[in-house]
Amino acid sequence: MNEPTFVIPLWADLIAVGLGGIQGALFASGFRGERRLDLLGVAIIGVVMGMGGGLIRDLLLNTTPVTLQSNWYLLTATLAALAGMLMAGLFHRLNAAIVGLDAVVIGLFGAFGTSKALTLGLPIVPAVFVGVCSAVGGSILRDAMMGLPTALMHVGSLYAVAALGGSLVLAGSYAAGLDLTTASIIGIAVTTVIRLLAVIFDISLPEQRALYRRKVAVETSAIPIVKS
Amino acid sequence: MNEPTFVIPLWADLIAVGLGGIQGALFASGFRGERRLDLLGVAIIGVVMGMGGGLIRDLLLNTTPVTLQSNWYLLTATLAALAGMLMAGLFHRLNAAIVGLDAVVIGLFGAFGTSKALTLGLPIVPAVFVGVCSAVGGSILRDAMMGLPTALMHVGSLYAVAALGGSLVLAGSYAAGLDLTTASIIGIAVTTVIRLLAVIFDISLPEQRALYRRKVAVETSAIPIVKS
Amino acid sequence: MNEPTFVIPLWADLIAVGLGGIQGALFASGFRGERRLDLLGVAIIGVVMGMGGGLIRDLLLNTTPVTLQSNWYLLTATLAALAGMLMAGLFHRLNAAIVGLDAVVIGLFGAFGTSKALTLGLPIVPAVFVGVCSAVGGSILRDAMMGLPTALMHVGSLYAVAALGGSLVLAGSYAAGLDLTTASIIGIAVTTVIRLLAVIFDISLPEQRALYRRKVAVETSAIPIVKS
Description:
TRIC cation channel family protein (chains A, B, C); transmembrane (chains A, B, C); disordered C terminus; homotrimer; Gly_transporter (chains A, B, C)
């Protein structure tokens, strides 16, 4: 309705959905033992990761979910999840691929969330919040459905900080007069780079009182609970 | 607002809500030990199962939740949950009743979700998606609130496939020219039959690589985690 | 849009958000071992508790989330979460503070949810439901994100009953002709007092069949799962 000026082109949105679907399926197919999922379960996680960010964004903005207005989103997410499953069979160590894709996906969803919120006239602080929720919402849903502790809370490697940084830079650039497309590209780059640097250099936030480090790998963070 | 042509009569909607409430309370009262719920907890799970499907459907469609527009939905869900609690005391083995009711409930919610989405003009793929989310959404909420692994992901007995099959047949029949009421009845039947056959013949989807089977019973799927 | 007559003043809303933020951070910083959160995790839980009730209320009512229409809500929730973290360092036993604050917070969110629903014209039963969901929604989100069993289901000390009681009294007083502000103040008081009395006198609901009691303290309820 009031989104005529909204700027995300369909192809960009579908790339985010597709990468999210692949990433989700790669992640979900990495479990063994009790948490091993059947084929449908892996596909569902892929779809959740591909569609989740956009759905949460549109729920928070109280707009009709864009991802349900055309057949393309679900078809893309599903095909991407299937591709992710096949690719999972080709790799022994998936962590690098999972983490790398994840960095790009949270960058894309964060930027799309923030820029859509700004376009709809939200003030800068809630616009950044919507961006962060879009970026990390898919993984929160994924962890809840897989019975894992929320990675966001425990991974310790600036996961949400990366999304927050990119969204802040995007919103700041836009407030400073940059056009939304350029600001979005900068925001995506900032999130992706922060996330990758955090993983590469094993940086984590200080705990409340103690200052010990955890291993960063995605699967590692789940292991204490899996015990299968 | 734009739902004058929407076809679910109140009595049909209330039947779905009531059966969902009974099923939820039966399920929730089946736990012992650490996961045993107090009376209010059982009632809450009943209400969640009775109301969850409709709420998720209307959130995804960005329409005002129908279930909150009249007193009847909540009263029905609550009374049904109380009835479910009382019935739970009469049976020793609840699995047959739980699984049978569940098959009908996911059929009803799936059909109502898909048909409402079609009525609102959604394309066929997202309409089917909304139907599946309506069908399985209540049980996802239930499992999350009870701290159980999402049954959908682990039960392995074509739980979501049943919802998907019925929704696809409904949407296909409607696209082929059938009226929505007839298509909905067919869809409900397809979902219920697939789900019951899957349970009776212990059919499950292949895992990603291995092909082993799990026991299908609802409670069984929860046991590895419960360990009470 | 259709909320010109809606009565919650911004300062009252921000008090609820702030108290929720403090309470969430106090709660989240009380965990040790495997569930210990880093600084960002504690802040996130604070924001979730401060913003969750209002977001869930507005999602159920299908209105644009008020908490995202100004910068103040998120700033308040974030600052309150930081304050909660600092305060957590000053106390050894946090339970009294956590439980006391919690009683006030569920009273405020319950009353705001019920009164907003009544203002928007919902019937009395769903208006009470929206109030209860607003009151307990933040803690459900918190528990889901922290991988804890839903406190609502297991704490056993009339947690949801307190929210239900206050919402019922509010809606009843309003239906009996009282103005909404007075009814809301009464509702807040009823919820807070019920919740505090339940904790002080260690009252819990009967289980389904057995009648044994559990210790009420918030952390205690989590311990059987934490095992860190």
